[in-house]
């Protein structure tokens, strides 16, 4: 199999996982779409966001309701002014299209950071290679398999 779903399944198996991939015909392209389809908190959705830091693509596994603060990501990466990757850059770096980009299983290992807000859940849901599929995973397992450093890089909401 060489379609995106098959490639993800193979990558997950190679990582020692047997993910319970769920398909939702109504689509899971965005975190809100995925949370609605699954019936979970949007904070349980893993956004696998590619940023370009210097010339290096890095992966920011971001909880559904959160936004990346580029200055914080810059400090973690040690590179100035990371910016969101274009659709073409996402595909080149991960092998998958935006909306289906999984958090691991890319052709080359990307430096990866995980949002601490994901870690409070028993399980979180991430894209499984396509914009209509997701799989559940314990956040600690996600961080381990993705090789992610768990460290804060999102905007903090104003108090009150
Ligand atoms: N399947 C869902 C939930 S698992 C998903 O993949 N969500 S996501 O957040 O990881 O992917 C969608 C993200 O891609 C959006 O949050 C947005 O940051 C980014 N995006 C969407 N369109 C573009 C675009 N044209 N260029 C760059 N980034 C984009």
Question: What order do the helices and strands come in, and which of them pair?
Answer:
Layout: H1 4-14, E1 22-23, H2 31-38, E2 45-53, E3 56-63, H3 70-77, E4 83-84, H4 87-94, E5 111-114, E6 124-127, E7 133-137, H5 139-146, E8 148-150
Parallel strand pairs: 2-6, 3-5, 5-8
Antiparallel strand pairs: 1-7, 2-3, 2-4, 6-7
Bound molecules: 5'-O-(N-(L-cysteinyl)-sulfamoyl)adenosine.
CATH topology: YbaK protein
Order of helices and strands: HEHEEHEHEEEHE
Distance between the termini: 51 Å
Q: Helical proportion?
A: 25-40%
What is the CATH superfamily classification? YbaK/aminoacyl-tRNA synthetase-associated domain
Domain unit count: 1
Which structural class matches the secondary elements? alpha/beta
Shape: globular
Q: At the first level of CATH, what is the class? A: Alpha Beta
The CATH architecture classification is Alpha-Beta Complex
Strand content: 15-25%
Main sheet, how many strands, which sense, barrel?
8 strands, mixed
Radius of gyration: 15 Å
Give me the count of strands. Answer: 8
- Bound small molecules, which ones? 5'-O-(N-(L-cysteinyl)-sulfamoyl)adenosine
Count of alpha and pi helical runs:
5
Mean pLDDT: 96
Poorly predicted parts: none
Offer a quick outline of the entry.
This protein has helices at residues 4-14, 31-38, 70-77, 87-94, 139-146, and strands at 22-23, 45-53, 56-63, 83-84, 111-114, 124-127, 133-137, 148-150. The chain is an alpha/beta fold and 160 residues long.
């Amino acid at each position: 199999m060489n379609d995106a779903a098959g490639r993800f399944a193979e990558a997950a198996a190679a990582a020692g996982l047997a993910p319970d991939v769920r398909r939702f015909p109504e689509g899971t392209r965005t975190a809100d779409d995925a949370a609605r389809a699954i019936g979970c908190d949007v904070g349980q959705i893993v956004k696998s966001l590619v940023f370009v830091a210097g010339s290096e693509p890095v992966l920011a596994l971001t909880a559904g309701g959160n936004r990346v603060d580029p200055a914080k990501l810059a400090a973690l990466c040690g590179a100035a002014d990371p910016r969101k990757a274009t659709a073409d850059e996402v595909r080149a770096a991960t092998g998958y299209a935006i909306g289906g980009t999984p958090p691991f299983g890319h052709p080359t290992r990307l430096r990866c950071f995980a949002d601490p807000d994901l870690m409070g859940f028993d399980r979180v849901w991430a894209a499984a290679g396509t914009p209509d599929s997701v799989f559940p995973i314990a956040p600690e397992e996600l961080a381990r398999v993705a090789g992610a450093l768990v460290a804060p890089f999102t905007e903090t909401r104003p108090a009150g």
